[in-house]
Amino acid sequence: MDAFGPEQAATYDERFSKLSAINSLLHLVIQSQFAHLPDNAHILIAGAGTGADVRHLAPLFPSWHFTLADPADAMLEIAWQHANQEGFADRCTFHAGYVSSLPETQFDAATSLLVSHFLNEEEDRTAYYRSIAERLQPSAPLFEAALCGNRYDTIFETEMEVWLGLMNLAGMTDEGGQNYRQSFGTLFATHDPSEVEKMIGAAKFGRPVQCFQAGLIRGWITHRL
Ligand SMILES: C[S@@+](CC[C@H](N)C(=O)[O-])C[C@H]1O[C@@H](n2cnc3c(N)ncnc32)[C@H](O)[C@@H]1O
Predict the structure, then answer these.
(1) What residue ranges are annotated as transmembrane (predicted)?
(2) Does residue 170 lie in a domain region?
(3) Pick from 33, 103, 111, 113: most CB atoms within 10 A?
(4) Residue of the nearest CA to atom 4 in ligand 1?
């Protein structure tokens, strides 16, 4: 996708660095939720981008293997560079494509961070979750986080103000903020949290439990049925 071409990939890690506390907390929740996995666990990283969560987990769990799947070559290239420089590339498989094009390996866990909000249609978003479920063993956890705002809800304006306040700290201009506001329902899905939970549940996962929120980013833990 164009939003994640070479130019965007090169600046992705820096772009939101002032909001790194949000990413750090996401990664801590994943670390705690996955801590019980076996030493030889194999983790699916759906929409891996530049691999921020793998960079957090790989040094903590030195025998885990990671499969990073992403349709954007340029993002995966940066993920490979990080893995190479930080010494865990030999524990990573890089798959330049959608999760649905991966073999149905029985992964022990999966993450999907800031990916599913790009799927505006309920059918596509549910199919994405199903493509992850089909590659997990029964009971395996999925940690899913996405931008989540229903522009038709009366609280949306206030939620958006809070979020744009944070984006301002990350350097977003007022004009950028206006464009961003318009993106819900076009670039980003405008599914209500309860709708997202239903879609996850419809895709062979147990009832998702929301265990993270920072502005418009919500995170859920769920398990493959
Ligand atoms: C905002 S980035 C998030 C990257 C990373 N997960 C993180 O936490 O920084 C979104 C990533 O999702 C990827 N992506 C978009 N649509 C996707 C899809 N349908 N399946 C898998 N990945 C997708 C993009 O190429 C991009 O690398």
Answers:
(1) none
(2) no
(3) 111
(4) 49
